Amino acid sequence: MRTAAGLVPSDTVRGRLHHKIGGYSQAVRWYRRLRPAWLWQRINPRGRITRSYVGEQGLTVRHGPFAGMIYPRSAVGRVNFLPAKLLGSYELELAPYLSTGDWDIFADIGSGDGYFCVGMARLHPGIKVIGYESDTAEQKFCQHLAEINGTNVDVRGTASFSDIHALPPGRLLLMVDIEGAEYELVNPEHSPRLREAAMIVELHWWVHEDIGNILRARFSSTHRIEVVEQTARSLAGFPELARWDEQSAYCATSEGRAHFGRWMVLTVKN
Questions:
Q1: Which among 250, 259, 265, 258 has a CA at the least distance from the CA of 15?
Q2: Which pTM value belongs to this model?
Q3: Domain range spanning residue 168?
């Protein structure tokens, strides 16, 4: 059962688990690697929706700044929220911040399957793209995704303070989505390079309820700060779902969260 906006109800067992451990815990990653993709597509509601969408529309991203990016068939059953990524609705609120800007480097900490890395490499030819990801299976998939899309992505492991500070010189856009660890890692005292970087940081406020105020205190002297709130998708923007029932359509456009997302966008003061 899901809400009309595609959220996982917080009063269900899955909703409570998602709220407590997030969608990318080691236990969740382990389960996703072991589950048979064919069985998931047949018995899990999100699996059935993924199979239906891919069967109807294929594996090319349809909308948003990354339109035209292609996923391999192996993505079905292993890439999180694949229909939302293929529709271009995945974290759509960030599109204006990714589409503009004259960047030399894009670095994504918590790059997952490579949606943002490969998308940015296609959108901004010539920039250096670096993805940090602790999961080795995700690293391999990101590299494969980059290759089939004709892009170059420097795929690395877990990011440290020194890794961030040693990022190449130039105009840097840093994206951070690390399930609550932004509290520790996004710290200019340990990585002074952050003081001159534009950033998009997902705020996992259910992990650390004061994370927004903490980051604001760290960067208010060097950055202009904007908080971006996720909202329910308008199905009118996705004609591919015109014949779908409303609940299934919202599920296809959503990211399987128990709550809407929230990001802090930081741009360097002149």
A1: 258
A2: 0.86
A3: 13-268
